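The data layer described in this paper is built around a simple, fixed record for each protein. Because each token names a local backbone shape, the row as a whole describes the fold. We quote a single record here, exactly as it is kept in our systems:

***
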Amino acid sequence: MRRVATLFAVGLMMALFHRVTADGPLEARATLALGFLVLTALVGGEFARQARLPRITGYLVLGFAVGPAWLGLVRRDELDALRFFGDAAVTVLALAAGAELDLSALRRGRLALGRLATGAIAFPFVAVTLVALTVSRWFPITVHHRFGDGVAVALVLGTLAAASSPVITMAVMGERDARGPVARTLLGVTILQVGAVALLFALVLALSKPWTSAGALNRAIAGEALVAFVGSVALGAALGFALGAYLPRMPRYPVPVLVAVALGTAEVAGLLRFEALLIALTAGFWLENFARPAAQPLRLELKRALVPASVVLFALAGAGLKLKALAELWPWVLLLAGLRVMSLRAGFWWAGRHPSVPPALAQEGWLTLVSQAGFALGLAQLARRAFPEWGVSLEALIVAMIGVHEVAGPICAQRALALAEAVREETHDAQGGAGAGPGVSGGGGTNAAGVVAARESSA
């Protein structure tokens, strides 16, 4: 009851400030909106925790409630001004995600990781592409266009269906303190999806030109997407190298360094039109595998910064949700979203037929990949520019689908990671207190697989 009263008081105060500052400078209004969003998100996170939901869900829902799409206590121009802080929060979470990937563990588990990533990418891509192509005669975006245009749209939708969000996965991992081999493997799959989808998106746009109508496709966007991907990875490697070289000289200042990295990466990514997510993922991976001793103080601060970064990012993401298209295109959104989820499940079932993949991953791991967020939204913006004639409608459909996955994804990820924690605890007990190891084994199964099998046989 006290939290409800707090939320009501904050909302009433914000409504008053919203009216009084209507003609004020944008910077002042945006600062006020950020503080209000953080306060309401924190209360929403507590409501979600009491309901046994991820706090991220509370951040998103309360952010949406006070955002321009519902109550309007935060204006659209204020959100646009705060996008920089969202990119900085993405940088923090992506740095932490990249730092979870140990190269030696990835090599040991390469068979399992490869099959899981293949299933998570190929199955949604093929399934969504084929279904979108089959219904192209009735699909609102392509109903009045040539079949070749429908092929291009279907390929883009299939590509977007293969994307998941490592940021949401990392945020849920941080909330649950899930650091076991199953959780890290699932995080690795989402990161592989990001790289594969970025390349596949550029390839689809480049190859779709011959069969589309004249002027329907701007092929130059394919080159722009490829340059952004390569440039982001290269810049991330350079950032990781620089941090590894200079962090030993600044061991007492990890917090200022982390703040400078987050803000600097967000600024540079915005200026160069690169992906802050890819830059930070690459930098975190470099630090973990090539400068681990030097980066240890920064890793500790990253762990502490996960919650504040999650509050800022998902409060802004919730306020920015655009679900207007969902009311108009909901049958198509539900069709494609449901098809994506089922194909993810099928992809993990296929991967689980190999002995290198533990049953825990094959049965429940796909739930972690349901989430989608900022990276997919960036590709949706590129798709709008790539198709000048119907790009706005295509982007609206994709954004509505991403909104559904963004809200449902954390809940699904919490279930999958809860199983991962149970497997880790039982593995720890079965080994008499020994750790479960940093990654998934590459041949013949894992300790986690043995625990799950033992549980099933005892039942």
Notes: The two ends are 42 Å apart (CA to CA). The chain has a mean pLDDT of 86.
